[in-house]
Amino acid sequence: MFLESGKNGAKGAIEISESRLVYECMQFLGLYGAVYRCNSGSVPLANGKRFNGMPRGFADIMVILPGGRAAFIECKDEKGIISPEQERFIERMQKMGALAGVARSVEEAAQICGIEINT
Predict the structure, then answer these.
(1) Residues 2, 25: Cα–Cα separation, whole Å
(2) Residue 110: is its pLDDT beyond 80?
(3) SS (H, E, C) 51-69
(4) Number of structural domains in the chain
(5) Is 13 in a helix, a strand, or coil?
């Protein structure tokens, strides 16, 4: 159903891009809660104005789980490095009581959200 995206070159692991990992995580987490893709930064529009997304460091995925618990997932491929802004965002969300962390696989995203995957 979902790509097996192990870490550190684990046997049977498939190396995938960050954008594919975000997609796979969203598909899986959508089975358990309301999932939102969050884009940060600013994009120029055709009319010369700018669209401002979420602030720098905001997680790639926001999930609202049953009971209203929020989770924030920062997806990184095998070589991806978390920025200081992303690290601060995750720490702040955790201090606020939300679930938050970095996922390099669908399994890690599930773990951050407290979802058990039966294999």
Answers:
(1) 9
(2) yes
(3) EECECCCCCCEEEECHHHC
(4) 1
(5) coil
Q: Which residues contact 91 (CB under 8 A, 6 or more apart)?
A: none
By three-state DSSP, how is residue 109 classified?
helix
β-pair partners for 61: 37, 73
The Cα 69–Cα 113 span in angstroms is 9
Does the pLDDT of residue 92 top 60, yes or no?
yes
CATH code of the domain containing 87: 3.40.1350.10
The pLDDT, as a whole number, for residue 13 is 56
More confident residue, 15 or 52: 52
Within 10 A of 100 (CB to CB), how many other CB atoms are there? Answer: 23
Amino acid 32 reads Y
Output DSSP code: residue 4. -
Distance (Å, rounded) from C-alpha 64 to C-alpha 55? 19
pTM above 0.85, yes or no: no
> Does 50 fall in a domain?
yes
Residue 54 falls inside a structural domain: yes
